Amino acid sequence: MDAFQAIMTRRSVRSYLPDPVPQESMDRILEAGRAAPSAMNRQPWHFIFVTDGERRKALAGGKFAGFLTSSPLVIVGCSNKERSPKWHAVDTAIAMQNMVIAATNEGLGTCWIGSFDEAKVREALKIPGEYAVLAMIAVGFPSNKPSLTGAIASVLRNKKAPEEIASREEFGLPYRKGENVRS
Length: 183
Prior knowledge:
The protein is an alpha+beta fold and 183 residues long. It has helices at residues 3-9, 23-34, 53-59, 88-105, 118-125, 148-155, 162-165; strands at 45-50, 73-80, 109-113, 131-140.
């Protein structure tokens, strides 16, 4: 699978098979995160790979994160606010998106999680104060059993047209696919 295919086929998965994520896949996912660019190469990230069932339960307290208990792997992305005060969140998000694409390439499903209680996650995983808990990623082999949240999300999945989200040359001049612009 090439990168564009992985990007275009990735979907948010909220229902997983109980099978563990192979260690080789976890290693490649981590390498994809490590390969991400960061401002001044500060690499202000730290990733916690959580497979223990009790710890995953502790992470599942967010309004839309209950399914984390059935996800065989949760990756918690932390960003060091002191190492990169201005860019820690952006840099860590770039690395985490690389990890999502790598997981897709491994045949795994993922779901980016922003619904969590940072204090509870911090306590459960003993995260030091200089780190912000940026996001979590559920990872596992997709189940064919759809979840209610997943069904609702699929209805809302339609993407806006290019001219609705992009401009050419200046804000408001529509970007049109296939249109060749001469300078």
